[in-house]
Amino acid sequence: MTLQQLKRDVLRANQEIVRLGLVMDTFGNVSGIARDQGLVAIKPSGVAYDALTPEDMVVTDLDGKIVEGSLKPSSDLATHLILYRAFPRIGGVVHTHSEYATSWAQAMKAVPCYGTTHADYIHGPVPVTEMLRADEVGEEYVRNTGEVIVRCFRNLDPMAVPAVLVAGHAPFCWGKTIEDAVHHAAILEYVARLALHTETLAGPGPGIPQHLLDRHHTRKHGANATYGQATRKDSEA
Ligand SMILES: [Zn+2]
C-alpha cells in the first residue's frame, strides 16, 4: 500500500464514521497502518471533518515520530500505536464515543453475546477493561489506555473479538483492514443497542450457548466459512 492510498483510505474512514452516526462532536478517530513500511496515518486533532483532505492526514512511525503532515495528530494516537504493536494482524483502528457502546463502557459492563448478529462478527462478549488507576492517567494517560486494552486481551484473540470497551470511556475497534475496523465499530454499536433492549426485556442473562456462538462465528470466520460467495476467501480470522 502506498502512503497516498493509506492517507486517502484513512480520510474516507474518518468521514464514514461520521456518516454512520458513530461520532458525537469530535469524539472519533480512525487510523490505518502500512505494515510493510511500519507507518501509521491518522486524522489530525480537532479539525472539522468536512474540511479535511488526504494531505491533512498525519503519518507517523510506530513510535509516534511524525513522518509526514503539518498538523498535530489525533490526541488518541498513542493508544492506536500500542494496539498496532500488540496486535500484529490488524490494519486499522477506530475509536468513537458512539451512544450505546459508550453506555456499556460507562456502566463498566461487557456486552454479552445475546444473539447471532453479535456472534457473526464478535466471538463472545465484548470485554470491558479495568479502570485506569490514578497513577495511570498522568502524562502517559493515552499510552496507558492502550496498555489496559492489551492487558484485557491477555487471554483473548483480537481477531476473533475485534472490539473493546475502555471502562468509563468508550469503545476501540479494529480489523484486518481500515474498512473492517469501521464495519466492526458500526456492528458493535448495533449489538450494544440490541443487548440493552434484550436486558430491558429479559434482564441480564448468560447469552447464547457456546454451540450457537461457535456455529455463527465460524460460518463467517472459520477455515470452512460458508457465508458469502465461494470465491470470497477473506475469512481466515
Ligand atoms: Zn475517547
Summary of the model, kept short:
With 237 residues, the chain is α+β, with helices and mostly antiparallel strands. The chain has 7 helices and 7 strands, in the order αββββαβαααββαα.
Can you put this structure into words, describing what you see?
The protein is an alpha+beta fold and 237 residues long. It has one domain: L-fuculose-1-phosphate Aldolase, CATH 3.40.225. Helices cover 38% and strands 13% of the residues. It has seven helices and seven strands; from the N terminus they run H-E-E-E-E-H-E-H-H-H-E-E-H-H. It has a seven-stranded antiparallel beta sheet, sandwiched between helices. Helix 3 packs across helix 6. The longest helix has 25 residues. It starts with a helix and ends in a 16-residue tail after the last helix. Bound molecules: zinc ion. The site of zinc ion has 5 residues, from loops.
Number of DSSP strand runs: 7
User: What is the assigned CATH homologous superfamily?
Assistant: Class II aldolase/adducin N-terminal domain
CATH level-two architecture: 3-Layer(aba) Sandwich
User: Helices and strands: which structural class?
Assistant: alpha+beta
Q: Please give the order of strands in the largest beta sheet.
A: 4-3-2-1-5-7-6
- Calculate Rg over CA atoms: 17 Å
Question: What structural keywords apply?
Answer:
alpha+beta, L-fuculose-1-phosphate Aldolase, 7-stranded antiparallel sheet, 38% helix, disordered C terminus, binds zinc ion
What are the SSEs and their pairings?
Elements: H1 3-19, E1 28-34, E2 39-42, E3 58-61, E4 66-68, H2 77-86, E5 92-96, H3 99-107, H4 116-121, H5 141-152, E6 163-165, E7 171-175, H6 178-202, H7 210-221
Antiparallel strand pairs: 1-2, 1-5, 2-3, 3-4, 5-7, 6-7
Helix pairs in contact: 1-6, 2-5, 3-6
This protein binds zinc ion.
